[in-house]
Amino acid sequence: MYHTADMNLWRGRTDFESGGRALRWHQVVTPLPQGGEAPGVALLGVCSDEGVKRNQGRSGARKGPDAIRQALAGQAWHLRRPLYDAGNLVPENDDLEALQQEQADLVAELLARGHFPLLLGGGHEIAFGSYLGLVRTLENAAPAHVGIINFDLHFDLRFGPVASSGTPFRQIADDCQASGRDFSYFCVGVSEPANTVALFERAAALGVDYLKDEELTFWTVSTAEQRLQEFIDRCELLYLTIDLDVLPAAVAPGVSAPAPRGLPLELLEHLLCCIRRHAGDRLKLADIAEYNPELDIDGRTARVAARLCHLLVREILAKDQHSTNDKGEEE
After folding, report:
1. Given this model, what pLDDT does residue 17 score?
2. What is the CATH number of domain 2-320?
3. Helices (DSSP H) in 18-167: which residue ranges?
4. CA–CA separation, 157 vs 165, rounded Å?
5. Furthest-apart CA pair in the chain: how many Å?
6. What angle do CA 63, 275, 282 make, to 5 degrees?
7. Which residue ranges make up each domain of the chain?
8. Tens digits of per-residue pLDDT, 133-142?
């Protein structure tokens, strides 16, 4: 079920400085209009942890989108494109499958209206609806090679009788097979102890590209950059998803499955900037999944999620920014 934006969540400090030089997210964001608006970034929450519960994880991620919004509200705003709150999706009667289809429709609509959808989760079941939304925009167009980059501790390629937070990329693989599309999936940060031999074998059978967490260090980052660039070069469109459990537990404790090692935040940010640099306009949407405020410590994970949103928005819109001099005037 769709719920329009709750603008009461967007509260924060106001600095009374001249020239609009001290704006924060809560002063810039507006509810998504019915139509006719300028293209911008559209935040869409998916308030579901039904997939996490089905996957025997710790529930609470359904509260994640609004908690991330509250963390975003007080952040400084450095961009010029519009920012819209597109509201929330909430499952009815724990019907995850219907929610994923409704999510796909909304993502497709946002893309058709020229926006960059940035989705906030919610469990990682969010990924299937995001992907479906992107490919639905292609139904009347020539086939395009769609690539998925997932920063995650887990492959999320499980089989099961029902959809869950552990199945979205297997569901995407099935959809690709049914529609005749290539399944192009790169999972960054995979933990060997967190994925069974069967999952590694399934990844190999499906042709999944991946980098283990132990392969991702600052002294081997050039290899990761090269692997990502080679993957991106094969794709015409890209979907980026970040499962917050890819980060170390000390950095992101508020997730269903905290990582004992994880990918350092600094390295994640560096790789995100590399992806944006190589992908350009091919990057069409992104989401952040698995934030669970009920398990967070002092809002630590919410702040990390908000920082990642800032980075994604900055990098996505980098081509629209103009350099400024010290007085804030365009050069």
Report:
1. 72
2. 3.40.800.10
3. 25-28, 50-54, 64-73, 96-112, 126-136
4. 10
5. 60
6. 90
7. 2-320
8. 999 998 766 6
